[in-house]
Amino acid sequence: MSKPFPPSPYLSDNYAPISMECDAFDLPVTGELPRALRGTLYRNGPNPQYAPRDANYHWFIGDGMVHAFHIEDGRVRYRNRWVRTNKFRLERAAGQALFGSWGNPATTDPAVAGQAGGAANTNILWHGGRLLALEEAHLPVELDRETLATRGNVDYAGKLPRAMTAHPKLDPVTGEMLFFAYSADGPFTPALDYGVVDRTGQLQQIERFEAPFPSMVHDFMATRNYVLFPILPVTGSMERATRGEPAYAWEPAKGAHIGIMPRQGGAAKMRWFRGEACYVFHVMNAWESGDKIVADVMQYETAPLFNPDAGSARARLCRWTFDMAGDSDTFTRAYLDDMAGEFPRFDERFATLPYRHGYFACREDGSRTVGDYNGLAHVDLERVTRSVHRLPEGDVASEPVFVPRAADSAEGDGWLLATVYRGAEKRSDLVVYEAGAIADGPVATVQLSHRVPFGFHGNWLGAD
Ligand SMILES: [Fe+2]
Questions:
Q1: Distance of CA 194 from the midpoint of ligand 1 (Å)
Q2: Distance, CA of 406 to CA of 347 (rounded, Å)
Q3: How many domains are contained in the chain?
């Protein structure tokens, strides 16, 4: 008999886990699903299997659960499955949680000391013939694209040492997957790994470099010729951890350091740019314009976690510009929008390239927590206009995912898909918008009878 979940903000309302895995066929649809929309939306998020062992449970560390919506001929079927990580399997066998929060050895059952405790809960994407569930401190986990059965960890023939970011970049020109991993020399070390998996799923390149200090690096940027690593001052410290304090802390005096490395040429050619402290969880896109590198990011001026002032933090879409022809180590920043938002996405056929259309979950009154994003925004960066679909009171939007109408459609010609938590009904819908007309509301709404707990990221895989 397992224990009930304790009171906690991250175990309540729509952060609370659901306890079942299920299949649902022919979900009710209002509106009209486009006939050309054929494929599967996969989404991943934390859904702890058992009550935590200590008081430090956080949304970021719950066991990954994947939710898949398969759309074909105007009909939708749904399937959800936990990712059977090493942690999940050991805990299921024991009938209770075994791993302490954040891998804390003091609260981990000695029977699993030193074992991998990854949750595979952050992102899910298709690359190199594999469906990969990702979480930034552990190896990717492969799932079956139809059944969502877990196939096991992916270490690329032993070439991937320890971990991969949950935000690799898929290069639409070469088909490569570019990735990094932080704390590459062990917990809270300043080393990062950078690597490349080719379009066939073979790891072709991996190299290690030192950042100015150990930090939590959630995302990075790639252009045609460069990769950019934002080393921002949410710092990691083993000393703090051993004193029993949170290992991560906001240290704004350290400033922002952006390492820019040629994709060909390696870490020896890394160039570091410096600026005022900020934090960025998520990048929209980056590209080159002449001698300039431009990156659009969701920038917080103060860290939204591990920071006493976290409550005032809100992210806004901000453009960073780096002059590669100059000899300055500074860069410029300009906000593109005042709207608070997170989970930026775009038409990713234009990843690493100049682009025009971006989308994100937003909140018009400036609140920032995930449970607060009550709208979806579309920014046209060429016309400098923004349109918003505001959800009914109490409803919450997930990250929006863009799906092109056809492989050769113009940029932004397609649909935007998101899940919406219906606060009053305590269940979720899948919503489908015309991406160019989100203010008109969804063209189709697919009803689930249960909740999809607040999660992180997802991706579309078109039907063969
Ligand atoms: Fe993320």
A1: 18
A2: 12
A3: 1
pLDDT above 90: residue 154: yes
- For the record, the structure tokens of 227 come out as 């990769």
In 3-state terms, what secondary structure has residue 65?
A: strand
Compute the chain's Rg from CA coordinates: 21
Q: pLDDT of 159-218, one tens digit each?
A: 998 999 999 999 999 999 999 999 999 889 999 999 999 999 999 999 999 999 999 999
Q: How far is the CA of 110 from the centre of ligand 1 (A)?
A: 31
CA of 122 to the centre of ligand 1 (A): 6
Q: What is the pLDDT of residue 370?
A: 64
CATH number of 188's domain: 2.130.10.10
Q: Tell me, in angstroms, the distance from the centre of ligand 1 to residue 456's CA.
A: 6
pTM above 0.85, yes or no: yes
Report yes or no on 281 lying in a domain: yes
Q: Is the pLDDT confidence value at 1 over 80?
A: no
Q: Which domain covers residue 194, as residue numbers?
A: 9-462
- Asked if residue 56 is part of any domain, the answer here is yes
List C-alpha distances in Å: 457 to 86, 133, 274, 358: 21, 10, 29, 16
Q: From CA 295, how far away is CA 370, in angstroms rounded? A: 23
Distance from residue 457's CA to the centre of ligand 1 (Å): 7
Q: From ligand 1's centre to the CA of 281, what distance in Å?
A: 6
Gap between the Cα atoms of 78 and 6, Å rounded: 29
Residue 264 has pLDDT above 70, yes or no: yes
- What separation in Å is there between the alpha carbon of 19 and the centre of ligand 1? 24
Only one residue has tokens 């000391």, namely: 113
Q: Does the residue 4 lie in any domain?
A: no
Distance CA 377, CA 337 (A): 11
- Render pLDDT for 295-326 as a digit per residue (tens, 0 to 9): 999 999 999 888 888 888 899 999 999 999 99
Nearest to 65, CA basis, from 135, 2, 4: 135
pLDDT, mean of residues 421-440: 98
For the purposes of burial, counting CB atoms within 10 Å of the CB of 20, is it exposed (0-12), middle (13-18) or buried (19 or more)? exposed
Residue 253 token pair: 């005096």
C-alpha 218 to ligand 1 mean position (Å): 6
